[in-house]
TrEMBL record:
Residues 82-137 form the PAC domain. It comes from the Bacteria. One of its GO terms (molecular function) is protein histidine kinase activity. Its EC number is 2.7.13.3. NCBIfam families: sensory_box. Coiled coil: none annotated. It catalyses: ATP + protein L-histidine = ADP + protein N-phospho-L-histidine. InterPro entries: PAS, PAS-assoc_C, PAS-like_dom_sf, Sensor_kinase/Photoreceptor. PROSITE patterns: PAC (PS50113). PANTHER family: PAC DOMAIN-CONTAINING PROTEIN, PHYTOCHROME-LIKE PROTEIN CPH1. This is histidine kinase. The keyword Transferase applies. The keyword Transferase applies.
Length: 210
């Protein structure tokens, strides 16, 4: 096998095993090929021209505005030479599944700065976004529960000498939350002052409390 063939073989293997979706388009915006991850993300490998991008369905997050025909990132990359980074989309895949992806497009240019084609990179972040949303809901529920029951919580890492208060602890003590003071020496001193003087020895109280 010649060196050129070896290089082509290696590039093809890299293309196939990449864990993110990768698509190639020619200078006219015709989608030529997608790798395995890209096909999995979209549920198909539509080899369509620029005038047929409407077969794709997606909405931009957080506005949830539908991506209109002619306004896809690849349209702007081919027509304007624009690089589009980290576009967050909710997609309707061809297999009927909804997914959340990060979309990236960039032009491929020659030495004369002429556009030869473009690449499209898709990363499926559905699980990550859903986990973030669950965490946000849990934090909101915890804050509301603490507010209603007038119970707060704090944590003090004695070794690192840093402390964290929940919002309700600030409210209980009539203090205004200041992100800059959370974990500060001032906050630790205020916390210790909440104890009776004879109980202020760090060996006598826990490093976490509600």
């Amino acid at each position: 096998m010649s060196d050129l063939k070896k290089s082509e073989f290696t590039l093809q293997k890299i293309f196939e095993i990449l864990p993110i979706g990768l698509w190639f388009a020619d200078k006219n915006g015709n989608l030529l090929k997608g790798n395995r991850a890209g096909v999995d993300i979209w549920g198909a490998e539509p080899q369509v021209g620029m005038g047929e991008y409407k077969v794709f369905k997606a909405r931009r997050i957080p506005s949830m505005e539908e991506v209109k025909d002619g306004d896809w990132a690849l349209n702007h990359t081919i027509n304007e030479g624009m690089t589009v980074k980290d576009e967050l989309l909710e997609t309707d895949s061809f297999d009927g599944k909804k997914k959340i992806i990060l979309n990236y497009t960039a032009p491929i240019k020659n030495e004369n700065n002429e556009i030869l084609g473009a690449i499209v990179v898709n990363q499926d972040v559905t699980g990550y976004i859903q986990s973030e949303e669950k965490l946000r809901k849990s934090e909101t529920l915890l804050k509301e529960t603490q507010k209603i029951s007038k119970i707060g919580g704090w944590e003090w890492n004695v070794e690192r000498d840093v402390m964290y208060w929940t919002d309700e602890v600030y409210a209980i003590h009539g203090l205004i939350y200041d992100e800059r003071e959370n974990s500060s020496k001032k906050l630790i001193a205020q916390s210790i002052e909440c104890y009776r003087e004879q109980d202020r020895d760090s060996s006598k109280y826990s490093s976490a409390c509600i």
